[in-house]
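Summary for the lay section of the report: proteins are chains of building blocks that fold into shapes. Here we show the chain for ABC transmembrane type-1 domain-containing protein and then a coded description of the shape we predicted for it.
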Amino acid sequence: MDTLLSILQTSILTATSMLSIAAFLALIYHIGILLALPFGNTLCTAIFETWDLSPPPQQQDLQHLHKVFA
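The coded shape description reads as follows.
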């Protein structure tokens, strides 16, 4: 009976340790994502601001001509 209780106690201790390690790793992963998010947003904003997303000048001229002759 003592052997069975010892095995049960060891199994519970092992399972508890594995769960605590998994929870700790999940917490570290989640904190890492939360810390990285502002830097990712800043990086994406900087990249999008450096690209000129306005239409090319010829297209602007054509739009202006369409407005003039409309």
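Put simply, here is one thing we learned. DSSP finds two helices and no strands in the chain.
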